[in-house]
Amino acid sequence: MSLRSEICARLLLPLIVTLLTVLAVFKLSGTDLHFAKYCAESTLVYAAVLLFPFIIRTALWGIFQFIVALQMCSIVSTSIYIVPLTVMNLSSHNAIGVKAQIWLAFIFAIVFFPSFFAIFSTKNVKVKKNIYMAAGSVVGVLMITLAFTQNSVLKNTKHLAKAVLHDVYFVPKQNAAIREQYRKPAVVSQSQLETAGADYFSPDTPIKNVIVIFVEGFSAEVVDYKNHSSRNLTPTYDQLYKNSLAFDHYYNHTYATYRGLRGQLYSLWQYKAGFYPDVGNQGFGQMDHEKIHKLTDSGLVSVPEILNQHHFNTYFLSNELRTGNMTSYLKTFAFTRVYGADDLGWTGDPPRSDKFAFQSLKQVLTKYKSDKPFFIGMYTAGTHHGVDSPDLTYGDGSNSYYNKFHNLDHWLGDFIAWFQRSPYYDNTLLVITSDHGVVIPTPEYRRSFHQKTEHSNFEIPLILYGKMVKPQIVDAKGTTSISLAPTLLDVLGIRKTEQYFLGCSLFETQCDERSSRLMHHFAAGTDSFRISANERGKYIISPEKEDAEFQKIYRFTN
């Protein structure tokens, strides 16, 4: 081989190696990305790096080959170049499995190392100054053109870097600035409970502990007392409305469960729901646990987090197993402990029954030995859409809605009877509400409860029960469950702490203008409704265009 041929071979070796390895990857993946474009791209990049001294040449070629190797791994695994979501989910790499990780490491190695080390064959190649100037100008123009060429590695990497920088740095910074606009120095400015608390609670029986029961998909119209029915479907609720501090015209502010639980315990709206059947695994109930924690890390403050600072033990009883998405999601609320159903003895498939839910609550209370006050939340799932009662039935058992609501009512009554005999009755406030109203009022549901519209009935129960409570019905005047978090803290006398609650306490006498307006809104994703009273005093739920403020709120909630 002549000297000239040997120099040419050394010069072309790195380019030939990278073209062969990338061609092998393209063939292996069956991608429709154009290999010819990569040939042109790599040739131009190689020509450009040859114009530099050897050390700089090696560094630039190494960087390019590193980028190419990463992009080839993406092509093998997804058939496309790397997208921003891939970068954002790098912490969840274990989800693809060990074999897949080893395979991608192998692809990276065969693309990167041969091409990178081949550049050392050009160590003695030097470019004359006049050639450097002329060739550099041509190559520079071509490189700029290539950076805007579709399906090129450089263009994709440029967009990727821009998107990741935007999502990782600029968006969180902007969202944090928006969030600070909603910071409140106090939970309550002025409360009726400070001046007229004895009208609602006995001053001789202070509240030490709180239990909140979030019943799945339960509208107020299900209750016989509210529905003016004599069917004896909900005798427990009927008695509670008579023997408790119960709120009338109180509405849910969002749906479904993932939005409802976080929304009520943080006093916020969040955009993302639990499940999306049509757009892939994007809901909190579908994504991996690390992503759940990442998306809920918003810097906001929950009721349990505030109570932890006031020396409470805070617990939640999940309807799912300890490894379930709901349980993982609830752990982001800052509870001292979240119990999975299997932690308390459930051995069946999730979700656990309402009977077992109330048995679990008894179990946790019976075993509680600390002198510290506690806050316990529990979500029951037995009244979920499509579920029939696994235990008790109503009448001949032919109506699944009657069955499941009657079953819930029975086990709630069983728990209340136990609660009244327990030592907790003297110092514990029992709060009974819902995660949201009945979201899907089917024809059977509408017939069963005489609902005239096809829209969800947003009115839900909010019942405060305990020895210290003075029974009465209080008109909530169309306010929503966005007020639950500040109301709970107000009742406990925790009023002067910073937070980002969007609602006001139901006992607040000086609610700010923004919260007063927001507390009459319902929002779930792009759905938006306004709750208002007509001239006859009847509350109307009216669809409306999405309030621009919700776009800001969604930005900083997740």
UniProtKB/TrEMBL annotation:
SUPFAM superfamilies: Alkaline phosphatase-like
Membrane topology per record: Multi-pass membrane protein
Coiled coil: none
Places the protein is found: Cell membrane
Database matches in Pfam families: Sulfatase
Domain Sulfatase N-terminal: 208-494
Name recorded for this polypeptide: Sulfatase N-terminal domain-containing protein
Organism: Mesosutterella multiformis
